[in-house]
Specification:
The structure holds two protein chains of two kinds. Chain A is 30% helix and 9% strand. By secondary structure, chain A is α/β, with parallel strands linked by helices. Chain A has an eight-stranded mixed sheet with strand order 2-10-3-9-8-1-5-4, with helices on both faces. A two-stranded antiparallel sheet of chain A has the order 6-7. Chain A is globular. By secondary structure, chain B is mainly α. Chain B has 24 helices and eleven strands. The chains are: A alpha/beta, B mainly alpha. Chains A and B meet through helix 6, helix 7 and helix 9 of A and helix 5, helix 8, helix 9, helix 10 and strand 11 of B.
């Protein structure tokens, strides 16, 4: 029986900050001699994730002046110093409306997630890049993908399976913990394994009810047949999840289930609160990856209309982008920059969590590939030119890191296109119209 | 004066059109012959209130249900319409499965099982098919909103028996069956099923169970009860007299409040309270519990006025009768009993609190975390209560027009007057700001203030040609506005028949408006009129390319 711990203790305790490596058993017996595969011969799994922040940046104090390796860190991204060698910065890539309206705070991120400019605010063409990745590398785990955010609002997600079909994110650390490490969790490093008879019975009943209701499908018309098919897909995923828990899991040396989280966090978008929520959600997520409960994830730090606030300050991040004066001496909007810097601190924290987590002969980050971006470049005028993007991790040594890449106004969709190909998706092009990507960003390829 | 046609017409694409409409765009659908449009049948995902009401009806209100479900998109101003179109991702299914599992564990746990299982199993450690059947048959009927077939019952009993044998636990086996039934699309979706209409050869109609569900969810926002299901089984629900009898029973039930609450919470966008927080430094009185209390205050005001008092809908915008907790009383700065419970309260005549729009719920919901927003309030009023859509800002506005190096605007009116200097902004802000500024005597937390930045607040303005001096007079203007009653009629009709208003609905809405006026604008009478109208059960088999039909046979 695990002893419950409070949220604060969880943050400050064995999983807190860089101390995340402390106290976690690193069981080399589970690894092969090279440390790049599990003792069973299975390779350490590939992971893909996204990280999103809203409202872009101030180009003059964000974009590095030098390209390639050893790039400088202008003041708005100074907090990335500890992870500079683990990330790539992508500037001067364009996202276009492709002849459609610029739908404020929507067009930019939608293009960078699915490659096609939307025609209205509910338009989502196809599925987001993470869903494509999940189809390719997410199987064989209980959760094909996991979506979380730091805002606490279930509407804040950038992962979708089509129009009206957003993947609902985890917003509560308590619920997120329960979903991953609740009673059904199978410790992969447990010396013994006995299939849980309750899960066996539960699964057989669920299968029976699915069979009982499957005939409904025959009686439906086109629209609702599609929706019902989606529902049955979900039920079968649930069935597979239960089936997964009936199999002995591969040992995962880095996996160490944390104590239960029982204390809910307050509501609100105060920057300090978001930072704390982001830390806690990140820590649970990192452990879920280490325990191979999922291989694909999405983290939303703030949404595209980011209503993040600073305590005691009456205007939110979004309001400030449009209303704050450019300081003539500084040359930028100081409060907007304050909010952007908080976003970059969170991004830096997130990368550090992965980078400090040992796995195999490296770290979790070495076996991961994270794609981060925003929805605008200069939010004051809803600019889509040069929306800032990052990657973190080397995908098992498949891409270089520590580079600043100048896109020279080529499509921003080249980045997700390249990342999908790096993780072995068999595609020759991605996106549509002016946002269609056909060329890898070769500079990052090993 | 705003036309009814404008409301029915729905969204406006550009600011210019919106302005024209607001100032009196012509009758758009004039001279159309009255007709009842037969919409497609719907398959609608159950909402959180519907789920909670259903669980409470079947198993009691002490069974815990998650307070929030996955979000859906609002369509034509209502989430309830979004449930008929939302796609279902695997994580949503997983959540519904876990919701059902939680309910089943509570219902069949040691503390409650004897209340719900009407028999004692031969042994708790073995299967007992007869006893399982006695539980599954009545519960399944209420969950699936129809009588289960003998094959279905046999299959579920068999599953319960197998699981009970595997686990040597009768109740655990039954619990798994209940949780799986609650994850079944039969429960999670509310289905319209069609059958051939014997009175109109070649046409279809809703089958009897679908009619029972439509009535029950409209009046109670919950599953049909035994009497409704009986009326479906005997076919009485297909007769005019049978429907009338059920409508009278449903409208007279205390459960009517469930439906009224859900409808107005939806129409007023109270789902946004789920994530509303105010800056605790700027508004220290608006603590974590306030937003929930504020929403509850307005919902109690609404149900008390509309159901308990059978009041005129329009008087909601002027009534001073309400309910307060001590937390809310601190924001309103009025003395009430020191109670966390709601107590009745009538605001004083000079309190500036006249009607729903001067309550903390509306005022704080349509504000920023740290300040008020005339634009959001104006938009909220137009979209929620007048059924007008305010266009979104254009993408490439030159905001430099609003920069002022001195930055010495004292009031929101001074700040917003800048918008009128740019035609691109002015057209839309003309729609929102003049009425939103009427609420400026209330800060972002809904607290009264006479001054902002030291300057006296001017809260005067006009609502589509009706001038007002302050928020109290604005409430009176809303009460007089023809869009106010037309909006609630059109939204309530859409909610009842699970689809957005269409041009063909104008005649129906017109008739309903006439009835509404004739009955003193009583919502209960309006609901009765809707349920007894030809439109309520009107349905047609859709064409194959957009087919959305489940046939009962």
């Amino acid at each position: 029986m695990k002893k419950p711990i409070s949220r604060r203790k969880f943050l400050k305790g064995t999983l807190g900050g860089a101390a995340v490596t402390v106290g976690l058993p690193f069981l080399e017996i589970f690894l092969n001699a090279n440390g790049n595969a599990l003792a069973s011969g299975l390779p350490i799994p590939k992971r893909f994730g996204t990280w999103f922040w809203g409202l872009g940046m101030n180009r003059e104090i964000f974009v590095p002046k030098t390209v390639g390796a050893g790039f400088d860190l202008p003041e708005e991204m100074a907090s990335l110093a500890p992870v500079r060698d683990h990330i790539n910065v992508f500037s001067n890539f364009d996202t276009t409306t492709d002849g459609r309206p610029n739908i404020c705070h929507y067009t930019g991120w939608v293009v960078l997630r699915c490659g096609t400019a939307p025609s209205d605010r509910s338009d989502l063409a196809g599925q987001s890049v993470d869903v494509m990745m999940a189809e390719a590398i997410g199987r064989g785990t209980p959760f094909r993908q996991i979506d979380v955010n730091a805002t606490g609002d279930a509407r804040d997600t950038h992962s979708f399976r089509g129009r009206n079909a957003y993947n609902v994110p985890e917003t509560s650390p308590v619920a997120f913990y329960q979903r991953i490490f609740g009673p059904q969790f199978q410790d992969p490093n447990s010396p013994t394994f006995t299939p849980n008879p309750k899960i066996m019975a539960e699964k057989s009943v669920l299968s029976g009810v699915i069979e009982q209701t499957a005939s409904l499908n025959k009686a439906l018309g086109a629209d609702d047949r599609a929706r019902l098919d989606q529902y049955f897909t979900g039920l079968r995923d649930m069935e597979n999840q239960l089936a997964y828990f009936l199999e002995k899991p591969e040992p995962r040396p880095a996996c160490h289930a944390p104590g239960a989280i029982t204390e809910e966090m307050p509501l609100g978008l105060d920057a300090e609160l978001i930072a704390e929520r982001h830390k806690l959600m990140s820590q649970i997520l990192v452990m879920a990856l280490a325990c191979d409960q999922t291989r694909v994830f999405n983290m939303t730090y703030s949404n595209s209309f980011a209503a993040t606030v600073k305590k005691g300050h009456e205007k939110s991040h979004h309001t400030e982008t449009h209303e704050e004066l450019v300081d003539p001496e500084l040359g930028y909007q100081p409060m907007v920059s304050w909010y952007t810097r908080r976003s970059m601190e969170a991004w830096s924290y997130f990368v550090q969590q992965l980078a400090n987590f040992p796995e195999g002969d490296g770290t979790l980050l070495d076996n991961a590939l994270v794609y981060a971006h925003s929805d605008q470049s200069f939010a004051k005028v809803h600019s889509l030119e040069g929306i800032p993007m990052f990657t973190a991790g080397s995908a098992g040594g498949r891409i270089k890191t520590g580079l600043h890449i100048d896109g020279q106004r080529s499509p921003g969709t080249r980045l997700p296109f390249t990342l999908m190909r790096v993780l072995d998706l068999d595609i020759d092009a991605w996106g549509s119209g002016a946002n269609r990507a056909t060329n890898d960003i070769a500079d990052i390829l090993v | 004066m705003i036309s009814r046609a404008f409301i029915v017409r729905g969204a406006l694409a550009v600011c210019l059109i919106a302005v024209m409409a607001v100032v009196g765009y012509g009758i758009y659908y004039s001279n159309r012959p009255p007709a009842v449009y037969q919409g497609p049948p719907t398959v609608k995902l159950i909402s959180q209130p519907q789920y909670a009401n259903t669980v409470a009806y079947i198993f009691g209100d002490d069974i815990e249900v998650p307070p929030q479900f996955p979000p859906v998109a609002r369509e034509d101003g209502l989430l309830s319409l979004g449930y008929a179109n939302t796609a279902i991702t695997p994580v949503v299914v997983e959540r519904f499965y876990r919701y059902g599992q939680s309910v089943a564990e509570q219902v069949l746990g040691p503390d409650r099982r004897s209340y719900f299982v009407p028999c004692t199993p031969a042994s708790v450690k073995t299967a007992d098919g007869e006893c399982a059947r006695d539980f599954i048959v009545p519960i399944g009927r209420l969950l699936y909103r129809r009588t289960l077939s003998s094959d279905e019952v046999a299959a579920y009993v068999d599953l319960a028996n197998t699981a009970a044998t595997q686990l040597q636990d009768f109740y655990q086996g039954l619990s798994y069956v209940l949780s799986a039934m609650m994850a079944s699309p039969e429960f999670v979706f509310i289905w319209d099923r069609l059958e051939d209409d014997p009175d109109n050869p070649g046409q279809v109609r809703l089958d009897a169970y679908s009619k029972a569900s439509r009535l029950s969810f409209f009046f109670w926002n919950s599953t049909p009860d035994d009497q409704l299901l009986n009326a479906a089984e005997t076919g009485q629900i297909h007769t005019e007299e049978g429907v009338r009898r059920q409508v009278e029973r449903l409208v007279g039930s205390p459960r009517l409040k469930q439906s009224i609450r859900a409808f107005f919470a939806d129409m007023l966008m109270f789902d946004h309270f789920e994530n509303l927080a105010k800056d605790s430094v700027i508004y220290p009185a608006y603590g974590p519990g306030v937003s929930g209390d504020a929403a509850e205050q307005s919902l109690r005001t609404i149900t008390h006025h509309l159901v308990d008092n059978l009041g005129d809908y329009r008087d909601l915008f002027t009534t001073r009768e309400t309910f307060l907790t001590n937390t809310l009383a601190a924001l309103y700065r009025v003395p009430v009993e020191p109670s966390r419970e709601f107590v009745p309260h009538e605001f004083a005549e000079d309190s500036h609190r006249d009607g729903l729009l001067t309550q903390v719920a509306f005022l704080s919901l349509h504000s920023h975390p740290g300040r008020s927003s005339p634009t959001l309030r104006g938009k909220g009023l137009r979209e929620s209560l007048l059924c007008q859509e305010v266009p979104r800002p254009p993408p490439n506005v030159d905001f430099s027009n609003f920069e002022d190096a001195a930055g010495d605007f004292k009031t929101a009116r001074e700040r917003l007057v800048r918008h009128s200097s740019d035609p691109a902004c002015a057209n839309c802000h003309k729609i929102t700001d003049p009425i939103g500024l009427g609420f400026e005597n209330f800060d972002g937390a809904g607290q009264f203030r006479a001054r902002e930045g030291g300057a006296l607040i001017d809260a005067s303005g006009e609502l589509d040609g009706i001038p007002f001096a302050d928020a109290s007079a604005l409430g009176e203007a809303v009460k007089q506005h023809p869009g106010t009653t037309e909006c609630v009629v059109s939204r309530l009709l859409a909610n009842a028949i699970n689809r957005p208003n269409r041009a063909e609905d104008v005649a129906v809405i017109d008739d309903l408006l006439g009835d509404f006026a004739q009955h003193g604008y009583r919502i209960t009478d309006l609901m009765r009129s809707i349920a007894l109208s030809e439109a309520f059960f009107a349905v047609a088999e859709p064409s194959p390319d957009v087919a959305t039909v489940a046939r009962a046979d």
